[in-house]
Amino acid sequence: MGEHIVLKEEDSAMLEAVVGSEACNFLLSTACDDSLSEFNPPGEILNLQQGLCQIVDGSSWNYAIFWQIASSKSGRSVLMWGDGHCRDPKVMAAERGDGG
């Protein structure tokens, strides 16, 4: 079995904000680096993060996720996280004026 995936603190916080603490802990504890090693994700999309930020900031959405289809050498496909942006819940509360 491969090594567990380690996320940057910012990415881990975003994941926890979207799926909740319990689900975040479960996902991180069961995921490992080699679980998706046979799949080759598509190339990076320029300005994707900027576009996701604009979508979230220009709407009432809390987060935007871009999913990508990746194919393996054997022809199998999987839906993979491409990128995402999550608005800080504290910023949203301040914008609404309810203080959280």
Low-confidence stretches: none
Helix content: 25-40%
* Mean pLDDT level: 78
Shape designation: flat
β-strand number: 3
N-to-C SSE string, H for helix and E for strand? HHEHEEH
Radius of gyration: 16 Å
Beta content: 15-25%
**Total number of domains:** 2
Enumerate the strands of the largest sheet in spatial order, edge to edge or round the barrel. Answer: 1-2-3
Distance between the termini: 42 Å
Class computed from helices, strands and strand pairing: alpha+beta
Individual helix count: 4
Largest sheet, if any? 3 strands, antiparallel
What does the model show?
It holds the Pfam family bHLH-MYC_N. Its main location: nucleus. Strand 2 and strand 3 form a beta hairpin. Strands 1-2-3 form a three-stranded antiparallel beta sheet. By secondary structure, it is of the alpha+beta class. It contains four helices and three strands, in the order H-H-E-H-E-E-H. Helix 1 (9-19) crosses helix 2. It folds into two domains: 1-37, no CATH class; 38-100, no CATH class.
For the structure shown, list the relevant keywords.
MYC/MYB_N; three-stranded antiparallel sheet; oxidoreductase; 3 strands; 100 residues; alpha+beta; 2 domains
SSE blueprint:
Layout: H1 9-19, H2 21-30, E1 39-40, H3 48-57, E2 63-72, E3 77-86, H4 89-96
Antiparallel strand pairs: 1-2, 2-3
Main location: nucleus
Organism: Opuntia streptacantha (Prickly pear cactus)
Keywords: Nucleus, Oxidoreductase, Transcription, Transcription regulation
